Amino acid sequence: MGASEWITLGGIFVTSVFAVIGYLLSMKDKKQEDEITSLKEVCRVLFTKHDLDAAALVDLQIKIAEQHYPKSELDAKFGQIEATLKSGFSELNASMKEMSKAFMEHLQGGK
Asked: In angstroms, what CA-CA distances link 86 with 4, 96, 98?
């Protein structure tokens, strides 16, 4: 074999190696493209779910807020409770005074 034949065989070998490397790289690129496409789909699904969850959370917050009393109404209710307690304790105090007076009269009457 002459030098030109070796050069031709070397060229064919180098071309074959580059062809195989190119094929393997294109397969790797195709695999990465498929992975990226599937990740994009997963991200799209997750972001869609997040948006739905966020909307549901806002709706829930609105429902909770609707079921709570406004401050003025709460103030009125607590005012009523406070008035009832004051009245009850005043009555209790008057009753205790009457009972103490009757008890003292009973003790003084027994002497």
From this structure: 117, 15, 18
